């Protein structure tokens, strides 16, 4: 297993009022993303535990794209990864943001 | 110790326990003169539908007729792994045996398991692990999962598994691991009379409430189970 | 253009969602009244297995079991759902302890039913002793809850089926609903083949697996009481139906079960295949049962199939 951690400064706070959300499951080629609204508005952290060791550069690129595109201010992402491909990671991150920024709940 | 040695040491006043193709059915007389219902699996016999239905029937037939505690002797294989047993619903037969033992225990017929040989997987769940107090005899060698199968699934070598097994009781076979988990309440001695040890236990049976998770915590084998169960219980009670 | 999501009623969404394909969380969301689910010790608590790291394996924040409470047609229920894709839905220390706590609360309250959405291969190998013991504790807790008057309903239709000790827990429930892909057994096909050889059981023969362990056979045998089509709404309706049917548990239930199982052994004990059993049950062209669509199968099962009602 390998632990990775990314901290980003972001322009805007993520919308919505939900405090947390979870998507995905931990399985081969899949991952779970837990997102929590626990940080100051201009911060975003992403913590990853991955079964696929040695892909730090790929993660850096995927996370960089994600933060740039969604500006998920105030959110802490915690990921348990069973060795998912980058496109699956991007999809789950987007799903997690969509869920926590939903209105209502 | 052989089964005959064990029975002789447990019941010096005599017993009527028959071993029919590995299925033990009968009763015995305790020191005080009371009767004890006895059942079990011997000779490392696999527990299938045919065996399970006789064992559960033996307990049910005694309910309302006899009183006193129930002893479950265990030296079994795993559940019988066969097409026929699964076709006929082995899960129901094993569950039924466990349910009958649990029901008896909850209703004035305290149950004691005596693990004196092997046992595994579904067979252990339906017998020893369905009793209130499970005793291990020295030399018993239960294996929820055997290491070669585990090596195959985890793709780890036997050496690697054996090394890991030294640091935790949580996965490897063996009586001492099950003691540490809280599954086996205590280990008796082969050197003292089993009748004496049974008498001491019967005089001071723990309450019927399942306390195996707190035992496992106290013995350092399962550090989270008791607390997690308690937390969920409290949250659920508040949610009412 | 697809229909906007907001115009789809929860029942329609549940009807169009495969129970087999859905995650544990989606199953609960669509099974219960909309928005009613509240989780106990959710993933944000990070109560993961303390043992998987020994094997350098990834953890899941809920350890593969989601427990909580919600409402079913306005009536409060406790629920537990296994995630069959995480470690095959297998029972480990934390996973099992969550269900034990839920059942103990149900016993104390005595009037709130428990729904268990099984999806499990049995004991988690990496924590086999803890998993096995958790299953034993769950079986005890189910029986104590039932003895206190709690209805415990099992719903089986997940990708990992209901194997190993999961099958024994299912056997302890007040009633079961099963779909065709929901398999119930103790030893899995691969386990039988590994231990007894391919002549005893060919695990790659999927038709053999389904007709020996699958939902249709379990329903016809009387091991399960209701057959559900593979969608969440059907399971919701099955759960409601079963909650209305379940009677009290007592010694007589166990005596009736003894009779039911002994009767099964004497009637079908010599049958070599599920088709032989179905034929012995009086089903004409029994070999066509696996191909029957759900509605036709349910009609057949209601005519022929036994149930375990009041005998489990």
Characterization of the model:
Chain A is built from two helices and five strands. Chain B is of the alpha/beta class and 240 residues long. In chain B, strand 2 and strand 3 form a beta hairpin. With 312 residues, chain C is an alpha/beta fold. Chain C contains twelve helices and seven strands. In chain C, helix 3 packs parallel to helix 4, helix 4 runs parallel beside helix 5 and helix 7 runs parallel beside helix 8. Chains B and C meet through helix 2, helix 3, helix 4, helix 5 and helix 6 of B and strand 2, helix 3, helix 4, helix 5 and helix 6 of C.
Question: Secondary-structure blueprint of this entry?
Answer:
The complex is a heterotrimer of chains A (105), B (240) and C (312).
Chain A: E1 2-9, E2 20-24, E3 31-37, E4 43-50, H1 56-70, E5 75-81, H2 86-100
Parallel strand pairs in A: 4-5
Antiparallel strand pairs in A: 1-4, 2-3, 3-5
Helix pairs in contact in A: 1-2
Chain B: H1 3-10, E1 15-20, E2 23-29, E3 35-47, H2 49-62, E4 70-79, H3 83-87, H4 90-106, E5 111-115, H5 121-126, E6 133-136, H6 147-154, H7 158-167, H8 175-181, E7 186-187, H9 194-203, H10 212-218, H11 225-239
Chain C: H1 10-15, H2 24-31, E1 38-40, E2 65-72, E3 75-82, H3 93-109, E4 114-118, H4 128-147, E5 152-156, H5 165-172, E6 175-179, H6 189-196, H7 206-213, H8 215-221, E7 226-228, H9 232-245, H10 251-268, H11 274-280, H12 294-304
Parallel strand pairs in C: 3-4, 4-5, 5-6, 6-7
Antiparallel strand pairs in C: 1-2, 2-3
Helix pairs in contact in C: 3-4, 4-5, 7-8
Q: In terms of per-residue confidence, which ranges of chain A show pLDDT below 50 for 5 or more consecutive residues?
A: none
Structural class of chain A: alpha+beta
Largest sheet of chain C: 7 strands, mixed
Topology of chain C as a string of helices (H) and strands (E)? HHEEEHEHEHEHHHEHHHH
Subunit organisation of the chains: heterotrimer
- Count every helix of chain C, treating DSSP H or I runs of 4 or more residues as helices: 12
Query: What is the correct CATH architecture of chain A?
Result: 2-Layer Sandwich
* Structural class by SSE content of chain C: alpha/beta
CATH class of the domain at 5-184 and 224-248 in chain C: Alpha Beta
- The fraction of residues in strands of chain C falls at 5-15%
- Order of the strands making up the biggest sheet of chain C: 1-2-3-4-5-6-7
User: What is the CATH C-level name of chain A?
Assistant: Alpha Beta
* End-to-end distance of chain A: 35 Å
Query: What is the overall number of helices of chain A?
Result: 2
The CATH topology label of chain A is Ribosomal Protein S5, domain 2
User: Could you give the order of strands across the largest sheet of chain A?
Assistant: 1-4-5-3-2
Spatial shape of chain C:
globular
């Amino acid at each position: 297993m390998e632990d990775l951690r990314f901290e980003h400064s972001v322009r805007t706070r993520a919308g919505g009022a939900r405090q947390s959300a979870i998507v995905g499951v931990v399985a081969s080629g899949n991952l779970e993303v837990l997102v929590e609204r626990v940080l100051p508005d201009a911060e975003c952290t992403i913590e990853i535990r991955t079964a696929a060791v040695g892909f730090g550069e790929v993660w850096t690129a995927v996370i960089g794209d994600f933060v740039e595109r969604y500006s998920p201010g105030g959110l802490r992402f915690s990921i348990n990864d069973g060795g998912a491909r980058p496109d699956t990671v991007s999809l789950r991150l987007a799903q997690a943001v969509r869920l926590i920024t939903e209105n209502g709940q | 110790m052989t089964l005959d040695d064990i029975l002789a040491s447990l019941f010096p006043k005599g017993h009527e326990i028959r071993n029919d193709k590995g299925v033990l059915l009968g009763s015995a007389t305790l020191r005080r003169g009371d009767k004890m219902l006895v059942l079990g699996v011997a000779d490392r016999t696999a527990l299938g539908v045919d065996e399970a239905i006789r064992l559960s029937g033996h307990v049910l037939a005694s309910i309302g007729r006899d009183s006193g505690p129930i002893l479950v002797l265990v030296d079994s294989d795993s559940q019988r792994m066969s097409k026929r047993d699964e076709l006929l619903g082995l899960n129901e037969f094993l569950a039924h045996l466990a349910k009958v033992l649990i029901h008896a225990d909850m209703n004035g017929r305290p149950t004691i398991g005596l693990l004196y040989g092997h046992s595994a997987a579904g067979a252990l769940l339906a017998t020893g692990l369905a009793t209130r107090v499970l005793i291990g005899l020295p030399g018993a060698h239960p294996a929820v999962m055997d290491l070669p199968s585990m090596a195959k699934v985890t793709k780890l070598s036997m050496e690697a598994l054996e090394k890991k097994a030294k640091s935790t009781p949580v996965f490897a076979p063996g009586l001492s691991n099950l003691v540490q988990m809280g599954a086996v309440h205590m280990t008796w001695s082969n050197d003292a009379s089993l009748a004496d040890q049974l008498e001491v236990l019967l005089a001071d049976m723990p309450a019927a409430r399942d306390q195996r998770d707190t035992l496992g915590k106290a013995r350092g084998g399962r550090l989270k189970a008791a607390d997690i169960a308690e937390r969920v219980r409290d949250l659920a009670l508040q949610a009412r | 253009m697809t229909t906007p999501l907001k115009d789809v009623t929860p029942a329609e969404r549940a009807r169009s969602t495969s129970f087999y394909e859905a995650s544990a969380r989606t199953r609960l969301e669509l099974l219960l009244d909309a928005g009613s689910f509240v989780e106990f010790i959710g993933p944000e608590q990070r109560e993961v297995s303390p043992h998987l790291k020994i094997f350098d394996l990834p953890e899941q924040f809920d350890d593969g079991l989601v427990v909580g409470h919600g409402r079913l047609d306005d009536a409060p229920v406790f629920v537990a759902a296994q995630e069959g894709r995480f470690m095959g839905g297998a029972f480990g220390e934390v996973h099992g302890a969550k269900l034990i706590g839920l059942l103990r609360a149900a016993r104390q309250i005595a009037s709130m039913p428990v729904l268990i959405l099984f999806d499990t291969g049995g004991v988690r190998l990496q924590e086999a002793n803890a998993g096995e013991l958790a299953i034993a504790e769950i079986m005890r807790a189910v029986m104590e809850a039932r003895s206190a008057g709690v209805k415990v309903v099992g719903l089986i239709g997940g990708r990992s089926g209901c194997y190993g000790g999961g099958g024994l827990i299912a056997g302890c429930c007040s009633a079961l609903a099963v779909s065709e892909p929901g398999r119930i057994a103790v030893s899995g096909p691969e386990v039988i083949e590994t231990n007894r050889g391919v002549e005893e059981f060919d695990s790659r023969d999927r038709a053999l697996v389904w007709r020996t362990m699958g939902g249709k056979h379990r329903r016809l045998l009387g091991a399960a009481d209701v057959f559900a089509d593979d969608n969440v709404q059907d399971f919701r309706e099955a759960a409601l139906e079963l909650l209305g049917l379940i009677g009290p548990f007592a010694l007589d239930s166990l005596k009736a079960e003894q009779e039911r199982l002994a009767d099964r052994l004497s009637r079908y004990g010599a049958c070599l295949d599920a088709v032989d059993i179905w034929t012995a049950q009086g089903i004409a062209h029994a070999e066509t049962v696996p191909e029957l669509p759900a509605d036709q199968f349910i009609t057949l099962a209601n005519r022929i199939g036994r149930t375990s009602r009041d005998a489990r």
